Each structure stands twice: as C-alpha cells, then as structure tokens.
Amino acid sequence: MKINERLKRVASYVDDNSYIIDVGCDHALLDIYLVKTKNNIKTIASDISDGPLEYAYKNIEKEKMLDKIKITKRNGIDKLEKEVDTIIISGMGTSNILNIVFRKKDNLKNIKKIIISSNNDWYNLRKTFQKNNYYIKEEDIILENNKFYPIIVFEKGTKKYKKYELKYGPILLKSNNEIFKKYIQNQINKLNYIKNNLTNKYFIKKIKLEKEIRFLKRI
Predict the structure, then answer these.
(1) What's the pLDDT tens digit per position in 9-44?
(2) Alpha helices of the chain — where are they, by DSSP H?
(3) What single-letter DSSP state applies at residue 158?
(4) Are 124 and 97 in contact, with CB atoms under 8 Å apart?
C-alpha cells in the first residue's frame, strides 16, 4: 500500500510502544504504515465523516489489521481513551487543528506528544501551542507536489520563542536544510511580487516588506 512522503515523515516522529489517535485519518494509510513499521503500536483511526471511515475500514480489512487498528467516528479528540499518549493531525488547516486540540483541554492530560502537519498559518499554530505551554521538540519541512509542508512535534513544556522563530520555525532556522532554503527563497519571491505590485500609497507596507525580505536573505 502506497503512502506519500509527507505521511512517512510524520510517522518517523512516532515512538515505538505508542498509543496513537490519528485525527482525520482519511483512508487510514498512516495507521497501517505505523503498524507495519513501528514496534508495539496501537492506533485509533478516527474521522468525523462516514465516507473516510468506510475507506479506512476497507483498507484495514485488506491488510488484515482489524484487530490492531481501532476505527471510530468522533469529533476530534472527544471522549479520548486515557491510554492514548500521541495525537497526530495531518492535512488540515491551522484553525481547524487548534479547535480540535484545545477545545477540550482536559483531554490532553495524558498526551505526551502532538504531531502536526498543517496546510497553512504556521505562525499562529506555533504561537497558540506556545501559549498553551507546549514547546517545539522537533521540526521538519518537505516539498510535495510543489507545496511546502512543515511537520512540527509539540511536547508539554514552557519555552519562549521570538516572533521570527514562531513564523519560520526555531529548529528549521537552525538546521537550514535544502528544502527550507527553497521555502525561504519561495517566500522572498512572493514578498517581492507583492511589494512590486503595491502602489505608492502603501509605502509603509512596502517598507515592512523590504525589511522582511532583508531578514529572509540573511537566513
């Protein structure tokens, strides 16, 4: 069963012996991959809609893993089993993710690790987790189908980040790997395009964009 690079990279941050809930499991490809590649993994494939769960059931049944992967229809992490220690959410927007995670904070008391791959607004994602006493344990970024996707691992703990770290990722800034360099160049190109298409009445915004571009060029 094929799995894309994004999900493989998400799976790489899962520890052996974990009990996972995969929120918005889609076709349960990640759950199947985790059971195949990790040791002593328990996983819950969950979704709020019947359609994805039907596909998930078929895939899990095909792989003969119905005894290893629990399928459940639920809203996010509602009624979360107390044994669950890892939450995975991939392929959603930040607003939806934050609502799922922090709508009922009592459900997080036994959670050791939250692995997120959001489609947008990564600054707000990092900032909100920081406000809720989570720090960034690990971080990576991939390029897939001409789109950039960060993968961020949050764990409980207090750590203060500067605004530019929340915007671009404290660990990504330090590692500065080839994909991240491409992402930064992509951002520079976008900001230059916006700046060059602003009229003179937006001179203050132009100044801010130029400052941001200079910062990005120094990375």
Answers:
(1) 999 999 999 999 999 998 999 999 999 999 999 999
(2) 5-11, 29-37, 50-62, 94-102, 122-131, 163-168, 170-175, 178-196, 203-218
(3) -
(4) no
Q: What is the mean pLDDT of each run of 10 residues along the chain (219 residues)?
A: 89 96 93 95 93 91 92 90 95 94 90 96 96 96 93 96 96 94 96 89 88 92
Q: Which residues contact 18 (CB under 8 A, 6 or more apart)?
A: 38, 41, 42, 85, 86, 113
CA angle 43, 101, 35 (to 5 degrees): 15
Using DSSP's 3-state secondary structure scheme, residue 40 falls into coil
Select from 217, 195, 194 the least CA-distant residue to 207: 195
The DSSP result for 59-97, as a single string, is HHHHTT-TTTEEEEE-STTTT--TT--EEEEEEE-HHHH
Predicted model pTM: 0.93
- Let me know: does 137 contact 155? Beta carbons within 8 Å: yes
Instruction: Output DSSP code: residue 28.
Output: S
8 Å CB contact between 152 and 139: yes
